[in-house]
Amino acid sequence: MAKNLQIALIVLLVFIGLFLLNKSSQSKHKSSTEAIFPNDPEDIFKFLIQNGEQAIELARVDTIWRISGNDTLEIKPQSMNNLFEKVLKVNKGTIISENPEKYSKYSIDDSTGTHLAVIDFNGETVGYYVFGRSKSDYSRSYVRIGDDPNVYLADQNVTYMLNTRETYWGEKPKEEIPPPPPVDIPADTTAIN
What is the largest CA-CA distance in the chain? Predict the structure, then answer.
């Protein structure tokens, strides 16, 4: 009877060991999502966006966003809203690759990726991201975050919101047309007689 108890105890320990090993293995493959920018958006004073040789800088002066080096265009509110509400809130999900040699495959290497630097009031970079388009799932993009060598699958495609054209971010101010001057109409004096 003691021998059967020892065998049962060994089998039980083997099952517990396999269960813990399986659970550990599953947790490595578990997909978790987390916003790429965890800081307070109120602390942001500048964005630098670069794609290839094209780049644009958006800077906040007091409460107004401006395109650096351009005083003829006013920032489009919807473009800035997309940057804050969609790009900075995109979630990183599953790790797609841990190999920096595959960056070009995911369009997130230095030459093909869209780079976004988020800078605070002190001129410090508080977020740095490289985005690439997914060739198989157009509703998602890839993202590399700061010094992290991993490539993550983002939960949506935000690359088109990181345009480097000034006309994407700004528009000419609408000219206010002054109302026409009042027209003096002489009173009809013949009707009084």
Answer: 135
